[in-house]
Amino acid sequence: MKYWDIAKAAGLATAITVMGATAVTAQDEPGDGVSVKSARPSWDTGWFTTEIYNELLRELGYEVSDPVTLDNPAFYQSVAQGDVDYWVEGWFPLHNTYEDTFTNGAEVVGMVAEGGALQGYLVDKKSAEEYDITSLEDFKRDEVKEAFDSNGDGKADMVACPPGWGCETVIEHHLDAYDLRDHINSIKASYNASMADAISRYNSDEPIFFYTWTPNWTVGVLEPGVDVVWIEVDHPDLPEDQKELEDATEMAGVEGCVDDPCQMGWPANDIQPVANSEFLSENPAARTLLEEASIPIGDIFAQNATMNEGEDSEDDIKRHAQEWIENNRDAVDGWLEEARAAAN
């Protein structure tokens, strides 16, 4: 074979090799060249899950922006309009109230954590025992209201939810449904700041009363059954968009509840991704990843506790997400394989 024939053959082989490498890369990174606009909720206990999903999308080649922090109403409007592509902090049925806002342009897809998100009302255990508090109804008693009244307005102060949160809607409904407007003052300031104040009062041996959800750092600092207790509602009464779930508000085996089964007043929530429909249609790999991936509720709880202990910077949260991915690499690689297959 002449020199130029050898060179030509070598060039062809090189071209084939390059083409093959390009094909492999395209298969491994179906999101190459696609920008993703992610969002995260205003509650920081959901930032860890956000970072995990964002990092998984990056492993598929997507260019994922740092997430924008949004309250519920702003997110559901933005995702329907395509101003953001997705988040993984849809709480259902709590967020059913936003369905009319997002269903024409976005959809719920996949499951981050199924049925593991509890919600309800707690008081410090010492006060519960001293005043025999077992239900919201007990806050109609004068001696109870006086004990939990820190501003002198004659009402018990309860840490509630900031405006725009899904839990605010349910708490407001409960105040009317159980005739508690004249007895309970719901504090709607920054949740973390309000809980920090409540914990400070608890450490000073003062009564505290608050709403919370799990997973959340609050029940890591104030352990149900030890520091605080879940109290019940007299009967289930939910907003219209959750009425069919009233039978699901009584739960057995709730650690730290005043009774078993415990009438929480809230159904357990699924935590689910919500994404723009056009984005999902154009990116089958991203859709499949959202459908396949999940995170154990205990892992979310553990990370939230770590944040509360001081590892709460943006870099810390990103590191936590990356460590979780590496510690769960077998499962992660399976999800990524399914996502890549969906793109072919």
Question: Could you characterize what this model shows?
Answer:
- 43% of the residues lie in helices and 17% in strands.
- With 344 residues, the chain is α/β, with parallel strands linked by helices.
- It folds into two domains: 36-115 and 270-342, D-Maltodextrin-Binding Protein, domain 2; 119-267, 3-Layer(aba) Sandwich (D-Maltodextrin-Binding Protein, domain 2), CATH 3.40.190.
- Strands 5, 6, 7 and 15 form a four-stranded antiparallel β-sheet that branches. Strands 11-8-12 form a three-stranded antiparallel β-sheet. A two-stranded parallel sheet has the order 1-3.
- Helix 7 links the parallel strand 9 (156-159) and strand 10 (184-187).
- The longest helix is centred in the first third of the chain and has 26 residues, at 3-28.
- The radius of gyration is 25 Å and the shape is elongated.
- Mean pLDDT is 91; it is low at 1-24.
Average pLDDT value? 91
Number of domains: 2
**General form:** elongated
* Rg from Cα: 25 Å
Strand fraction equals 15-25%
Low-pLDDT sequence parts: 1-24
Please write the string of helix (H) and strand (E) elements: HEEHEEHEHEEEHHEHEHEHEEEEHHHHH
The DSSP helix count reads 14
Measured distance between first and last alpha carbons: 40 Å
The assigned structural class equals alpha/beta
Keyphrases for this structure?
344 residues, alpha/beta, D-Maltodextrin-Binding Protein, domain 2, 2 domains, four-stranded antiparallel sheet, three-stranded antiparallel sheet, 15 strands, 43% helix, disordered N terminus
What is the secondary structure topology, with strand pairs?
Layout: H1 3-28, E1 35-36, E2 39-41, H2 47-59, E3 63-64, E4 68-70, H3 72-81, E5 86-92, H4 99-102, E6 106-108, E7 113-117, E8 119-124, H5 125-130, H6 142-147, E9 156-159, H7 166-177, E10 184-187, H8 191-203, E11 209-213, H9 218-221, E12 228-231, E13 250-251, E14 262-263, E15 269-276, H10 277-282, H11 284-292, H12 297-308, H13 314-327, H14 329-342
Parallel strand pairs: 1-3, 2-4, 9-10
Antiparallel strand pairs: 5-15, 6-15, 7-15, 8-11, 8-12, 13-14
Helix pairs in contact: 2-13, 11-14
